[in-house]
Each structure stands twice: as C-alpha cells, then as structure tokens.
Amino acid sequence: MNLTIDAVSKRFGNKLALDEVTLELTTGVYGILGSNGSGKTTLMRILASVMKPSSGAVYLDGKDIVKMDHQYRELIGYLPQHVGLYENFTAEKLLQYIAALKGLSKEKTNEKVEEVLTLVGLFEERKKKVGKFSGGMKRRVGIAQALLNDPKILIVDEPTAGLDPKERIRFRNLLSTISKDRIVLLSTHIVSDIEFIAKEILVLKQGKVISQEAPQTLLKGIEDKVWSVIVNEEEIPHYQEHFKVGNINRVENRVQLRMLSDTKPNEEAKKEVPNLEDLYLYYFDEEQL
Fold it and tell me: Could you tell me which residue ranges the ABC transporter domain spans (predicted)?
C-alpha cells in the first residue's frame, strides 16, 4: 500500500496553511512533528478526506482519493484532535451506533465492537456511560471508533493532548500494536509520543515538510550541537540570550542548563546525546508551542 501526497497546498483566504507538501507513505507509523499552526491538522484533514486541497493531489496506489470518493473513505480511520462523543451513551452503545453509520451489518457490528473495546482495554467498562470516563478513556473510545471499519489508513491528530503520562504511554503502545498492517499517521507536538514508535518523522514547519527521516537519522544531524553547562543562577539570562536553552535543572546551589549550540558554550560545557526534545527545540524554538 502506498499513499502519495503530490505537491499539496491549502489556502484559507490569504493564509497558506500547506505549501506544496510532497510525501510518500507506506505501512508503519509516521510521526508528524510541528508546532501549533505548522499545518499538521490541515494535512490530516486532507488525508482523512474531510477537506480538499487548493492544489495538488493525494493518491492511494496511484488512484486519486478525490475520485475514489467513498471507496477511499471506507479505508480510513480518523481521530480528530477534538471529537464529540454522546456522553449519555454507554461505550458499547456508542460504538454500535457509529458502526451503523459506517454501514457495518448487525452481525459484524457486535463482533467488531467487542474486538475494538478489548483492544483499547475498555471491554469491562463497556456498559458505563462515556460521560463518566476520564479524558484518557474517552480518547480510547475515540481510537476504538476509528478502528471499527478495520481501516488500512489510521489518522490520529494530537491524540495524547491533555492526557496524564500513564495514559500517554498506553496510547503510544496501542498505536504501535495496531500499526503492523496499516499506515498510521500520528500528529503531535509532544515529542515523546513518537520517539520510540515512529519509523519516520515528518518535520512540518510553516506549511512545509522540511525533513522526513528515521528518528535516529534526524538526531544524528544535531549530535554535535547539544551541550550541558553548570552555571550560577545570575548567569541564566546570558545563556538564554545567546543560545537555545531547553531544560533548566537545579544542581545543589547552581543550575544545569541543556542547550543547543554550534560551538562549545564555555570551557566546562559537556557534550550530550541528543533526544527528540532537542530536535524540537532546534526546529521550533522561536515558535509558539
């Protein structure tokens, strides 16, 4: 299976949200990394066939998805960033209702609802009203509804926003588990969500894809740029002015700064192994998170 995005642009009035994005995706997890306003959600909505591009096209195995119409949408599972759920429905009834909207037969519906509830760890909670669920449980209901039609392409936009660390780990593991025979696109600005599960990371900035590489390849590009220094507290403003400073940690009565710099920040600076948070800082330090 091959999903090709060919010079896709999207305008909203005078604003260019996507600028000739060209990508080629195959089976596996792809992380789309970008700050708010980078075009992540717009790209996701186009790939989910919710929105049409202003120019360019998307092809699935050589076929234009606009011309495929419902044949393409039957292959899609989509979890938008903000999804409305009928909170007076039980999880089971809600999924049965959505399955009916997706055209599943009654026999297939019962089978798939049980299957996806088990997959997301909510089978024992299936008789409880969704309104009583935690934020993490609601997101799991969201991914369950996206999986009802056994999609070949799963698109999830900011799935862990607002979740506690335990739920975020659960969600990442779930996406990794279900990616075996699917294209999974995970849009996020939380770098730890994709660090260990993405086969490639697409870095999207101001509507352009500026990099598409495996995580370790991206990190290799900044391996000589990450440093830590221990300074006095009054020195912090100086380093923040001259370097991209990430983490600030207290070390006894001094402060340890982790920063990006092309050259050694001072004589005592130590080189550090880069991670995806450093990568995010490298690309998006000047942008609003």
Answer: 3-231
CA angle 157, 28, 135 (to 5 degrees): 30
pTM of the model: 0.85
pLDDT digit string, tens, across residues 174-221:
888 888 889 999 987 777 778 778 999 999 999 999 999 998 899 999
- pLDDT category, 18, cuts 50, 70, 90? very high
Q: Give, in order, the Cα–Cα distances in Å from 160 to each of 153, 170, 179, 254, 260.
A: 19, 10, 17, 34, 27
Coil vs helix vs strand at 95: helix
- In degrees and rounded to multiples of 5, residue 108 shows phi and psi of -70, -35
Residue type at 285 in one-letter notation: D
- CATH 3.40.50.300 in the chain, residue ranges: 3-220
Calculate the alpha carbon distances from 138 to 71, 98, 114, 187 in Å.
28, 15, 17, 18
Pair type for strands 28-33 and 200-205 = parallel
Topology of domain 3-220, per CATH? Rossmann fold (3.40.50)
- How far apart are the C-alpha atoms of 181 and 178, rounded to whole Å? 8
